[in-house]
Amino acid sequence: GAGKRKPAGRMTMERRETQMKGNRKGTRAAGIMLGLAAMCAAAWIPRTVYGAGAIDTEKDDCRILFTLDIGGPDTGNPEAVPPDDKEYYGELSGALDGGDSIAVSLYRVAEVDAGGHFRVLADYRGIGLEEMEEADSGTTAREWAGWAESAAAILGEKETADPEGNGSLPLPDGSAEVVKGEEGRIAGTTGKLRTGMYLVLAEPLETESSIYRFLPFLVSLPGNDYGTGGNDVWNYGDREPVEAGLKPEKEDLYGNLSLEKKLTSYNETLKGASFVFEVKAVKAGRLVYSDVVSLNFDGPGSKSHVIEKIPAGAEVTVTEVYSGAGYSESTGNPVGTAVTEAGRTVQISFENEYDGHLNGGGTGVVNHFTYGKDGEGNENLAWEKQ
Fold this sequence. Notes:
Number of strands: 25
Number of helices: 3
Distance between the termini: 65 Å
Strand content: 35-45%
Shape: elongated
């Protein structure tokens, strides 16, 4: 009748097509909205199957192949993704070229019976996962995502309570190292798994300028291709592995810039000396920072100004656009450049001296531009007159 849940029946796996690409410009709307992250974390969704036969619950040699969930004609190959996605995966792919890998752990959170019904294991009961035992064809992606987050949360809580892991943390039931192999395909396999429902957790991967975090999700063994137009048979992965895509979210890392100014000689008659610098930072062909900085002197000496939180890996160009009345840049080069590094402060230095000529005075307005991202992950510069 209306409003009643459908019988659980037997399960299958339907591949979720929604892509989660994190914070980046140009991706599909469903992929870039952080508000949808919790709705889209489940990689495989059980659906009702009527002809697949009973599940062999004694199987203990199931296998899963992990790839990057990047779309395109060759899943897992960053070179084959749509043009708008290349920049997003390019850095991650480059890190894997350098020998890094993505460490994946699997935790068996529920067993499955011959009819495709789940029963949550003791370590994961009492946090709402019991609702998964009633999953059917009407269960939503939001519900699966919520269960994945709940399972991941209980592991986090236990780790916080016992950081040394003295027997209180469930041990992973499987693990995989996702690496970049032949022809650019990024993949990793784990095997010797029992049937059941598994929580998939991937460790964050940090590059020179970003950190990639991966959404937790649930994947079931065995799988079934009935929901995607394939054969209505159980796939244990022993002949052809069950595939699941890792879903990365990219987070920028930042560095600082220290602007150093040394004034070797000073005209006491003219009194105060002001120097104005234009600061611009460009990353991947986009302007990510723009600002104007002034340093004021009342005598010879050195002063500095630190600009914080410039995206790491950006090329910063500082131009001395005003050298003060009667002062000139000692080296004759009013431009300095540097590349920001995550968690570090790079330095650009200038040196000025009194040259006996008056350049004229005047007043100035400092325009401040702040780099940021909107709710959909698009970069922008917000302007503020100071």
